[in-house]
Design goal:
The protein is α+β, with helices and mostly antiparallel strands and 750 residues long. Helices cover 17% and strands 31% of the residues. The protein has twelve helices and 38 strands. The strands form eight sheets. Strands 31-32-34-33-35-36-37-38 form an eight-stranded mixed β-sheet, with helices on both faces. The radius of gyration is 25 Å and the shape is globular.
Length: 750
């Protein structure tokens, strides 16, 4: 689980993240594959290897000097080099922040045409894989209804419909009321991503946020649920996060600065016809991002600001008319804290006093300052604390222990903790939807590599558990698969976990198998062992699926993350290489049968390792890859840059310049026989701009000594998280799988 800021005032850290902001289920390690007939393999490989009718599009080179260090009137960090260092980037001109340059668009269209040409002989396999992916999806489905006031709320999907439908019914009634149909919203739009969907305290109004470009900038609409009429449409260009106050009068939201950093938190009044919204908080420091969240008791609104290493929180008492935010603890470099309210007190998860893996503390609401914080439980260096979810008479604490997510029930006057135990050795647990404050039942989700996601309810008094629903996965039999967890010794001796899942009995023999290795390794994001039906085409074709839990992620606690950032970032890459080498050493696979994948910062991983060890991998897919590290991290006008100086370092400073230059994928392309490569991206991606993979592919082709395909697929109507249409998303994944499975020589068309 990623440390996102305030639990009570949960800040969504806006990063080059592999994870969808609203989901636990799903875009983190998408993958698939299946075993094949020899004739089909030979045919597929012969077609893709056939002589090309046209060559890859060439990107013009134009002189451009990029400055690293001091530049007048620009934010270059605290200690920029002066005089600056200049580096030549002949492809810099491809950058167009407005995404309107006709020459650039034409080049991207040529890239797509070339990719389509190279993949056209495999079109029937892509269509077959699309159908295979859908065969594991219950297209008409619904979530478990959850109680919220006098209603039960849920979402559903219908076969053939691309988007969710939000519904409710009165408790005790079977009469369904549709409160928002995303399919209706999406009509006529190439992209439609719905952010927050929030019912007002009276349950009469619905506020929701919509992004129609993929740039993650949201318009907010407020509708009367009974009539369906829009009653307020004043909010535009918001960050997509919404929270009602204690009544229907006020709605809280946030907005961006010029660099797409969340810097302001506002209170909107529905009764104010002049739209004089109140600015509650503004974060001027470009290292920090702002956020907010209401407590489940509805007493407090927590507002906070956080960088990767430091946080500062405020609280507003919603029972009072005063909107002034009270400081909880002044920011102190290196000190992080999350705040929630429990039983009339403030509970704080913090790394204060060198608690690297964080500890739980508390204080009275009237004395919120850190000098009054007292330990609730002794610090345990082997347990990483992440999140506290509180109710009237109990709380649930989430964290990590032994490399996996864990949850504890907190009860009683002495705050006694009881860990919730599970039978499987490797699993993932996460909070479910729990709207009611006064309850003894708590919902959470559970999954493993071989167990589809379950919605479970536990009674905190009796400990009794009920599986309310297991996500249906048609054409899947869990007993046909098995998983394992092994330890890999990294270059510096550190033990790095690696998860494996494969068809039962597949590894009983001694023959190497085709293998797919996934990695991420940044921002303390953990790639946990959860079920993903998009892996089944790999597994059903006798491909071993491996997940490298490399440093930079948070699987083994905070130090697992901190030991692969700044001037230790290369540990992420060498860990991944060590995992690949272990797969070869154990004769699970061979380099010519090993394909790899990573997205976003995981795309940086892919770019780095194919530069470092092009001989170790046969093919790679880099999704929305963050590969132009030096140029991006030197320019504060690019979204995310300033906040991520505390992740990678700032190349404008002498301390980091040489080290970052030594691994930046774009800057380290060299003459080599590179693996086959597919790079995918979105024109409207604000997190990793389209020009990064575009420039990277041009440079790779120029330096590649081999003849393997190097393809770029650019979605001209989406952003960082690909298509919003679920069917289009499956088609995109089928395309990516076709490339990877073809490289493994295990394609087949059913």
């Amino acid at each position: 689980m990623m440390r996102t800021g305030f639990v009570g005032g949960s800040i969504i850290r806006w990063r080059r993240s592999v994870l969808q902001k609203t989901s636990m289920d799903n875009r983190a390690m998408i993958a698939t594959g299946a075993a094949v007939g020899i004739a089909a393999v030979i045919t597929a490989r012969a077609l893709t290897g056939a002589g090309s009718q046209f060559e890859p599009p060439l990107l013009d080179k134009r002189e451009h000097q990029v400055a690293f260090g001091y530049v007048e009137d620009e934010n270059r960090g605290e200690n920029p080099m002066n005089p600056p260092i200049f580096r030549e980037d002949p492809y810099f001109w491809v950058r167009d922040d407005a995404r309107k340059n006709k020459e650039v668009i034409k080049h991207l269209e040529k890239e797509n045409a070339f990719t389509d040409f190279k993949m056209k002989p495999l079109k029937k396999y892509t269509e077959s894989l699309y159908k295979e992916l859908l065969s594991h999806v219950q297209e008409t489905d619904s979530t478990v209804p959850y109680k919220h006031g006098p209603y039960e709320y849920y979402t559903k999907t219908l076969e053939g419909s691309s988007y969710k439908i939000h519904c409710r019914r009165e408790i005790g009634s079977e009469k369904e009321e549709i409160i928002l149909d995303e399919n209706v919203l999406a009509k006529g739009k190439k992209h439609c991503d719905v952010g927050a969907v929030e019912v007002s305290p009276s349950h009469q109004l619905l506020a929701y946020a919509v992004d129609s470009t993929g740039y993650e900038t949201y318009e907010v609409l407020i509708v009367n649920i009974g009539t369906g009429k829009v009653v307020d449409q004043a909010l535009t260009e918001t960050a997509g996060r919404l929270t009602w106050g204690r009544d229907d009068k006020h709605l809280y939201y946030s907005t961006f600065d010029q660099a797409h950093r969340v810097d302001k938190v506002w209170r909107h009044s529905l009764l104010d016809t002049k739209n004089n919204d109140i600015l509650l908080f503004e974060e001027e420091d470009e290292l920090f991002s702002a956020g907010f969240q209401k407590t489940r008791s509805e007493r407090f609104m927590f507002i906070g600001s956080q960088s990767s290493e430091t946080s500062e929180g405020y609280m507003i008492d919603l029972t009072k008319e005063n909107t002034e935010a009270e400081l909880i603890a002044k920011r102190e470099k290196g000190v992080l804290y999350d705040v929630n309210e429990y039983r009339g007190k403030l509970y704080i998860i913090t790394n204060k006093e060198d608690a690297k893996n964080f500890k739980l503390m508390s204080t009275s609401v009237d004395q919120p300052g850190p000098e009054n914080w007292k330990e609730v439980m002794p610090y345990d260096k082997d347990i990483k604390l992440d999140l506290l979810s509180s109710f009237k008479d109990f709380a649930v604490l989430y964290g990590r222990q032994g490399g996996f997510t864990q949850m504890w029930i907190v009860r009683g006057d002495d705050d006694a903790l009881t860990r919730v135990e599970f039978e499987e050795k490797a699993y993932t647990v996460a909070p479910g939807v729990n709207e009611e404050f006064e309850t003894t039942n708590y919902r959470f989700s559970y999954s493993s590599l071989t167990t589809p996601m379950q919605t479970i309810e536990i009674n905190v008094d009796s400990g009794e558990r009920k599986v309310l629903k297991e996500q249906p996965v048609p054409n899947f039999e869990r007993s046909s698969y098995e998983s394992d967890r092994i330890e890999v010794t990294a270059e510096d001796g550190t033990k790095v976990p690696m998860s494996l899942v494969y068809k039962k009995g597949l590894l009983n023999g001694s023959d190497p198998k085709p293998c797919y290795l996934y990695g991420y390794g940044s921002y303390e994001i953990s790639i946990d062992p959860f079920f993903n039906s998009k892996l089944l085409p790999f597994l059903d074709r006798d491909v071993v699926v491996a997940i490298a839990h490399i440093r930079g992620g948070g699987e083994m606690g905070r130090m697992h993350y901190e030991n692969a950032k700044y001037l230790k970032k290369k540990n992420t890459f060498t860990d991944f290489i060590a995992c690949a080498e272990e797969l070869v050493a154990k004769k699970i696979t061979t380099p010519d049968r090993l394909v790899i994948e990573g997205r976003s910062a995981g795309g940086l991983l892919i770019g780095a390792v194919i530069n470092m060890r092009p001989d170790l991998f046969h093919a790679a897919h880099a999704g929305v890859p963050f590969v132009d590290v030096m140029n991006t991290m030197s320019d504060a006008t690019i979204p995310l840059t300033t906040g991520e100086w505390e992740e990678w370092g700032n190349p404008n400073e002498e301390k980091y310049f040489d080290y970052m230059l030594s691994y930046s994928p774009y800057d380290n392309v060299h003459k080599a026989n590179y693996p086959a490569l597919l790079a995918t991206s979105g024109l409207w991606d604000p997190r990793v701009a389209y020009w990064e993979p575009t420039k990277w592919l041009a440079k790779l082709r120029e330096n590649n000594l081999g003849d393997k395909d190097m393809l770029l697929k650019m979605d001209l109507a989406s952003g960082h998280f690909s298509a919003s249409d679920r069917y289009k998303l499956y088609r995109e994944r089928a395309f990516e799988l076709t490339f990877l499975l073809d490289q493994l020589q295990v394609l087949r068309a059913d």
